[in-house]
Design brief:
Strand order of the largest sheet: 5-4-1-6-8-7-9
Distance between the termini: 20 Å
Order of helices and strands: EEEHEHEHEHEEHHEH
Number of domains: 1
CATH topology: Spore Coat Polysaccharide Biosynthesis Protein SpsA, Chain A
Oligomer: single chain
Radius of gyration: 16 Å
Mean pLDDT: 87
Largest sheet: 7 strands, mixed
Structural class: alpha/beta
Helix content: 25-40%
Strand content: 15-25%
CATH superfamily: Spore Coat Polysaccharide Biosynthesis Protein SpsA, Chain A
CATH class: Alpha Beta
Number of strands: 9
CATH architecture: Alpha-Beta Complex
């Protein structure tokens, strides 16, 4: 295993710009879990990994600002989807890699984040996505910033699926176990109440 000091530098993008439909329209990153907003849990897991921590958000900017080095937002209105947030992150990222995480995976851990960076460094020209079984997790990924233009071109050609685009770009898979609790998407009130333990 590569030691943390040898892991590649990366910018980190936390996605919190969605409509929050499964949360009844609430701003998902600000919904509380164990007494803190979800974004606070992700901030704590990632802060030490990068000096370039970015949050993609489209509302409540003043509440997100303390958790990021900078904020980005979609350049089109009406919540155009996560690929818009990823594009915005790629356009400002200061390191060779951009690690992307959704705001609703507070149980992700340091070992998995390190594995993502290490595996990405072994395939420096390709995006990396987590995968369990045959299912890709396109919002848990590491993207070389050199692919910024490819993302822009695909967007302007009408592509809106991050996963489809990254597979087209030859994505590398980091396989994780089926039902890995670290990937639990706490994106409904029911799931927030079901997952009652906090992982470090």
């Amino acid at each position: 295993m590569t030691s943390p000091t040898q892991l590649p530098s990366c910018s980190i993008l936390l996605l919190a710009g969605g409509r929050g439909q499964r949360m009844g329209g609430q701003d998902k990153g600000l919904v509380e879990w164990h007494g803190e907003p979800l974004i606070a849990h992700l901030h704590r897991k990632t802060r030490a990994l990068s000096d370039d921590l970015i949050i993609s958000c489209n509302r409540n900017l003043e509440k997100y600002a303390p958790y990021a080095d900078r904020l980005v937002h979609d350049d089109e209105g009406d919540f155009p989807g996560p690929l818009a947030g990823i594009r915005a992150g790629l356009n400002v990222a200061r390191h060779h890699y951009l690690m992307v995480l959704p705001c609703d995976v507070p149980r992700i851990d340091a070992a998995l984040l390190d594995s993502m960076r290490e595996t990405a460094s072994q395939h420096p020209e390709k995006p990396l996505m987590l995968r369990h079984g045959d299912h890709w997790e396109p919002l848990l990924c590491v993207i070389p910033v050199t692919l910024r233009e490819a993302f822009e071109n695909a967007w302007h050609e009408g592509e809106r699926s991050p996963g489809r685009l990254m597979r087209r770009l030859g994505a590398t898979a980091l396989q994780v176990p089926d039902s890995d609790p670290r990937l639990a998407n706490l994106n409904t009130p029911e799931l927030l109440s079901t997952h009652k333990t906090v992982s470090d």
